[in-house]
Amino acid sequence: MLKRTLNLMKQDSKVALRNYFHLVILILAVLMSLLINFAIPDEVKLTPTELFFDNTPGKAFQEYLISEGVDPDRFFNSYEDLKSAVRKDGSSLGIAVEGELDRARVTIIHQGTESEEILNLLDATIESALDRVRGIERESNHRVEYLRSKSAPVSFNKNTIPIIVFMEAIMLGFLLISVMVFQEKEEGSIRAYRVSPGGTLEYILSKAAVNMGLGVIYATLLVVLTMGFRVNFPALMVLVALSSFFITMLGLAVSAFFRSLQEFLFVGVFILSILSFPVGSYYSPAFSPDIVTWLPSYPILFGVREILFPTGKTGFITSLNLLLIAESLGMLLFSYLVVHRRLMREGR
Amino acid sequence: MLKVKELYHSYTNDDRYAVQNVSFEIQRGEIFGFLGPSGAGKSTVQNIMTGLLKLQRGDVLYEGKSIKNISAKFFNRIGVSFEHPNLYNKLTGYENLKYYAGLFDVPTDDPMRLLDMVGLRADAHKRASAYSKGMKQRLVFVRALLNRPDILFLDEPTSGLDPNTASRVKDIIISKKEEGCTVFLTTHNMFVADELCDRVAFLNEGKIVTMDSPRNLKLKYGDKSVKVEYMHNNAVNSRIFFLDDERDRKEFNELLDSREVQTIHSQEATLEQIFIKLTGKGLK
Ligand SMILES: Nc1ncnc2c1ncn2[C@@H]1O[C@H](COP(=O)(O)OP(=O)(O)OP(=O)(O)O)[C@@H](O)[C@H]1O
Ligand SMILES: [Mg+2]
Description:
The complex is a heterodimer. Chain A is α/β, with parallel strands linked by helices. Chain A folds into 2 domains: 2-41 and 155-344, no CATH class; 49-134, 3-Layer(aba) Sandwich (D-Maltodextrin-Binding Protein, domain 2). Chain A is built from 16 helices and 4 strands. Chain A has helices at 2-18, 21-39, 60-67, 79-88, 116-134, 156-159, 161-170, 172-187, 189-194, 200-227, 233-255, 261-275, 278-283, 290-293, 297-308, 314-341; strands at 49-55, 75-76, 92-98, 105-109. In chain A, α7 (161-170) packs antiparallel against α10 (200-227), α11 (233-255) runs antiparallel to α15 and α11 runs parallel beside α16 (314-341). Chain A is elongated, with a radius of gyration of 28 Å. In chain B, 31% of the residues lie in helices and 28% in strands. Chain B has 9 helices and 13 strands. Chain B is globular, with a radius of gyration of 21 Å. The chains are: A alpha/beta, B alpha/beta. The complex binds adenosine-5'-triphosphate and magnesium ion. Residues 42-43, 83, 155 of chain B line the site of magnesium ion (MG).
């Protein structure tokens, strides 16, 4: 059993190498690290740029904002100038303040794409800024409390690393295993396997092992290239290996229902998209409906982030790994049954 | 050794059978041929016997044990060669054999020696995708020999091979038989069947038409046939007449009367002619 599985692994890795899977992974890892290091900015302003026209006597509002560090280029001398500037820049908002400071009339010129919430927020911000210009200090009665000790903010580009590890090192296994299976189906080599003493379990484990290896190499490479060596690599490797095993089993079970890659692709991409929903929650944590948090990919993504940018939730990774072991065993059983009943029983 | 009992198989799971009521027995060390035209159901029977196709009705027994209750270990004892070459195209010929050998729990033959036997030594380290159809066919054939099987299933082992290589393959099959190997051979080539098989079954439209040794078949059905060459529409035609057959005899006489006959030879019938006689159609 062990000898045969090792023999199969040797064979599967050879085929993977000859399919240039390793090159794909190497090139992807280098490209992604270049993107992260050089192309994606450290910080991204997700709210629109405000442009101003201050028509109050003495332009006190403008002076105040400039003193607060707002770029003087963002001020215009007439309402018309402001309007045309907003029209030119699709990610901007115009704010015109007119009349006496005490009873200032504020006009907001917007693109029509901003949400109600953003506009309300803006309204409140302008009002409080005006108050300060008027010299009224409001008693602030809010304070900030942190659940854990405040961690250093993660820069925007580095923050994408967990997503890339998740999408490419882990989810890639879903597609790679299907490529492997359909290639064998097409060649018919699986029929030759079926008249040998080799069993279904060895067949599955060998392919899973090769995929786990590729996933771990990819993740390690990408993280080394983007974050250096100050990362808990053993923890990363364990999590990537377990997740990759789980996703590979899922991919294998799903592929077994289809005759060719073309037929599989539609459903495969659909499942991948569903599994990628947690990326939405990653960027806006408020987007976490139960359906998304229940996805097995949800804790995986946040687990990768926790390992790369620890916030001290130590128990989380351990329980995640245990959960993944349980899920993987379940998925292994499922894909064993599917492969045994379908892939290993086909007429032709 | 091997017994097939009342086998039926329908790919559509209804009463349109690809194989119907097929029964036969193969003795140890025997080469048993399945001869029939394309679509007769030869591969279907072989695939049921090797477990690739589900057993729907009937039974296949190995030394009295049904294939339904056979364990994975059984596959250590059989060798299967497929009609469509199924190889890892990304691996070389040698790697394909090396990998396959690693699947068995029993001692296996040296891949290089096997490649040499079918003239593939020089191409051992080429990828299978670069092999010609005949080379793939030979590779699949020797792959079936790797585990020194007791029972060999060969689906069209010589189709697509040049006469030289075909005769090498035939020699290997005979030497396997001499080692005590039992061979189930599928073909639509009557010469192969005639040369190699101890017994043949004629399969037509999923049913066994007759079954005996080639010699007995010829004695039984092949007597008193004549081959006549005659002119017709300014071209030379030839036709075989079985003189025991009333219609044939009548037509033969008519042809003689027409005086278009050029040559007449009495001859031993080939298996193909017997097949035509029994089924009304050729083997191709
Ligand atoms: N996978 C399949 N699905 C449906 N019908 C099939 C399938 N395989 C074979 N058949 C049908 O079953 C019949 C027997 O086919 P089979 O392949 O056994 O013939 P064969 O004697 O091996 O022919 P050949 O000499 O061409 O290899 C044919 O009518 C064929 O169309
Ligand atoms: Mg066939």
